Amino acid sequence: MANKQRTIKDKLRALSENIQRNFKLRSNILLAIILIVGFGAAICRLGYLQIFMADELQQKAVDQQLTDTTISAKRGTIYDANGKILATSASVWRVVLAPVYFENDEERRFVAEELSEILGIDEETIYEKSQAKLYYSEIKRKIESDTREKILELQDEMKEKDINPNVVFLMDDYKRYYPYGDLASSVIGFTGSDDQGLSGIEYQYDKELTGTPGRLITATNAQGTAMPFQYSQNIDAVDGHNLVLTIDETIQSIAEKYMEQAIEEHAVYNRGVCIIMDVNTGAVKAMASVGGFDLNDPYTLPESALEEIRKLPEEERAAAESAALSKMWRNKAVSDTYYPGSVFKMFTAAMGVEENLVDESSTFYCPGYYTVTGQTMHCHLRSGHGTQTFRESIKNSCNPAFMQQGEKIGTELFWQYYQAFGFSERTGIDLPGEANDIFFSEDGSMLPVNLATASFGQNFAVTPIQMATAVCSIANGGYIVQPHVVSQILDDEGNVYSTTSTEVKRQVISSETAALIADILEENAVSGSGKNGYVAGYRVAGKTGTSEKKNDSNGDGVDDYIASFCGFAPAENAEVVCLVFFDTPTGDAYYGSQVAAPVFAQIMSEVLPYLQVATQYTEEELAQLDTIAGTYVGLSVSDAQTAASADGFTTSVKGSGDTVLAQVPGAGTPIPQGGNVVLYTDEDSAKTQIEMPDLTGYTVYDVNYLCSLYDINISITGATDSYLCTATSQSIPAGTMVSPGTLVTVNFTAGGFSD
Ligand SMILES: [Zn+2]
Fold it and tell me: How far apart are CA 740 and CA 709, in angstroms?
């Protein structure tokens, strides 16, 4: 930084020295003329002006003929929670012409031609600029270092030709650069050509990031020629403040990886959202609107969107392109609303418990439907759930049971709690474009049938950030906390300028109510409708949701669906909430349990260990816990077999040698208990490769059998508790050539649930 400032100052000093030199030269010539010719009237006048009126004239020039140039301030850096750079301003340069120093037209032609070639600008345009009697005429902004080298070479060449080298000079400038490209693109946002924030944090915190540009003021006389004396002033630029986000690059990357995979797998038409939030502080650790865009190239649409646009008549393309760009840039996590569906049932349940209207002994009857003021609404299980306890009604995600709970609560209390959970107000997160909810009426009044549908989360819309914030209150003992993405503002020297402290807005429900709902949601994630969200080793709580949008955006003839899952971990003393939603899956699966819950499980199974959340295995889980493979290489075959057996593994031996030359899985790899280690005893056997089979669609039993046939080790994740669970993904794609003994992770998803 100090270096760059020095460059600006050096340039300015050179400029001003040159001006002074010119002034001296002209003064001397003037003196000679005066001495030789004597005091002619005109010259007398000129001398008078110069000697006695200098100050006054100079002031006049400053007042009337200022050329005011800004010196760029360096825009602040945006860091993630661990100090990784998410946005920074890299040094580039501005090419400036000081045409006042040209001595003749030949020089102008030479410089115009050279600059035209280096900068790719029309020669005549530069030549025209070279005619002006100016100290500062901008030719091109934001040139990179390779172009800068060429300009420096040109300056040398000019010196050789005796052209004043100050005719062309460089000034420091900055260009925004995003090292992670498309990571958290809708949150970070991007800047325009003048470095102004246009979206996301770049827009929201533009004032803090911008800094104060410096100024370079020079003067010319009324005819536009250089004055024999020069007023110039330099005000240094003050660099912008830096931001430290609550967003953690590692967590954000994990979330985006699994979201992208699912968007492809389920042919999701309108993108997806993932929010991961600290339940106690409201710090947003990840916020993804996938698919995003490259922050270094924000105006380029994906090929799929361009293809759609090309199909349109020409006159409609420009409008379609700008609509596609806004859609791509949109931060769905704060700017979109969606019907929350069954995820909302946790709040209806909490209202009833908090008001002592329902408890663990309450029962609800579901014959498959429920009728309110003459309107019959069905349960997803058409045959009905029969009589259920309060706990079972949540695990079954039974709509008729929730319509009955809604009736007990009544419209007035329902509206009060709806407001208290924060659904009727913007959260006030420090990001632009936050949307309002859409409720039945502004004052909370609604018909009995509205209350019935609202009780199971249908026909009103909230934003994902409202939902994640409200779920935090179930997870943290009842408190609504202020969500935020910036944790600290640092000055340009790295000192802390301000820190965002945790803001608790209010307590909505008692810690006892919150604990009961969390406990039920934990059971739901193990053996209820949310079991595809189960993460082995962690006590996860959560709820699925599937909601109809009542429109058909992709024109496939069926209504759009939102598939979502929102949960937290650990169920007791929770640390993070994770919301996952997919807008309009167009594949075979569209239920939250099929599309969103497995993604929640995948994300949490990596995020929780990263956050060092303590594992809490059940006895059953402990029995299946992985064991670390020992080092068997270098041992005799029989010793290796004994050692592997002592570690709890079976072995197969490949080749005819006596000593183990290689082993798969390698030493230190965690292998599920009872796994098989392949021992290679000669060079040829170690080269053996097998083709990874396609394991998707098979049950746990079948996958186990297939893998034993192929000599492949498997690690199982997801829901596996019944014959209805089938493999939905595998860590090594089918068809990949692998060594016998290779470990593949297979994720299973339960069928038979429809929410
Ligand atoms: Zn039911």
Answer: 10
Spacing, Cα 395 to ligand 1 middle (Å): 10
219 CA to middle of ligand 1, Å? 82
Ligand 1 centre to CA of 407 (Å) is 16
N- to C-terminal Cα separation, the chain: 56
Count the Cβ atoms, other than its own, within 10 Å of residue 392. 19
Q: What's the CA gap between 596 and 9, in Å, rounded?
A: 57
Distance from residue 532's CA to the centre of ligand 1 (Å): 20
Distance 577 CA to ligand 1 centre (A): 27
Ligand 1: distance of its center to the CA of 422 in Å?
A: 28
Q: Which two tokens stand for residue 611?
A: 């956050």
Q: What is the 3-state secondary structure (H, E, C) of 572-590?
A: CCCCEEEEEEEECECCCCC
The model's pTM is: 0.82
| Per-residue pLDDT at 650 exceeds 50 | yes
How high is the pLDDT of residue 162?
92
DSSP conformation letters of 676-705: EEEEE-SHHHHT--EEPP--TT-BHHHHHH
- Give me ligand 1 centre to Cα 602, in Å: 29
Distance 401 CA to ligand 1 centre (A): 6
Distance 369 CA to ligand 1 centre (A): 7
For the stretch 565-605, pLDDT in tens is 999 999 999 999 999 999 999 998 899 999 999 999 999 99
Of 280, 696, 290, give the one whose Cα is nearest residue 502.
280
Distance, in Å, from the CA atom of 219 to the CA atom of 224, rounded to the nearest integer, reads 9
Q: What is the average per-residue pLDDT within 456-473?
A: 97
- Assign a CATH topology to domain 2-245: Penicillin-binding protein 2a (Domain 2) (3.90.1310)
Q: Which residues of the chain does CATH 3.90.1310.10 include?
A: 2-245
C-alpha 363/C-alpha 255 separation (Å) is 38
Q: Which residues of 672-694 are buried (b: 16+ CB within 10 A; e: fewer)?
A: beebbbbbbbeeebbeeeeebbe
Q: DSSP state, 241?
A: P
- CA of 371 from ligand 1 middle (Å) equals 13
Distance 368 CA to ligand 1 centre (A): 5
Q: Exposure of 588 by Cβ count < 10 A (0-12 exposed, 13-18 middle, 19+ buried)?
A: exposed
Q: State which fold the 335-619 domain adopts.
A: Beta-lactamase (3.40.710)
